[in-house]
Design a protein that fits this description.
- This protein is α/β, with parallel strands linked by helices.
- The protein has one domain: Nucleotidyltransferase, domain 5.
- The strands form two sheets. It has a five-stranded mixed sheet.
- Helix 2 packs across helix 3.
- The termini are far apart.
Length: 218
Amino acid sequence: MREVINCFQQINIGCPTFGNMLLAFHNETLIEAGCDEAGRGCLAGPVVAAAVILPKDYHHDVLNDSKQLSEKQRMELREEVLKSAIAYGIGIASPEEIDDINILNASYLAMHRAVDQLKQTPELLLIDGNRFKPKQDIPYECIIKGDGKYYSIAAASILAKTHRDELMKSLCEDHPGYGWETNVGYPTRAHRAAIKEQGITPYHRKSFQLLPRQLEMF
């Protein structure tokens, strides 16, 4: 496994000051794919990543970082992204893979799988965050808080978040009581209380601290 490379050119520019308009591209001449993931901080479920290539002249008044939007807005914007994207891909790394290679490497793996699903090969990857493991020889830029700066990364954040949320809500039918229909696997008090009372499921990440230490003593 190749060593994880920190980005030496970490882009940390501010968002445009006019409304919610993000940037349509980083390099006007290259085919760019924005990449983002969802679910890194969860106790259960996979980490899901998306890669999106948008037209260079793309604009939308509402599209933004998925964390800044309501669930209704995210679902509406997902349809907008799927309709407008030149190409998109979804990649998943399972809880078993997270436990085996750790959550950071599993996030990279999910992003690589998302890029593999693109029907057009990107010439530049725009990565949300400050680190990335190279995907073959595709150049990349790490962009801190990029999902609030570039449309393509924001679009990827929407697809990753909505895909993962739907997956967790479907899993809660066979594993009731953990509140996945609302917490989608994140470490809420109710989720941890259910783990203490019911034990773990095959979808819980065994390498994570599922219970605070004070609860483990009881």
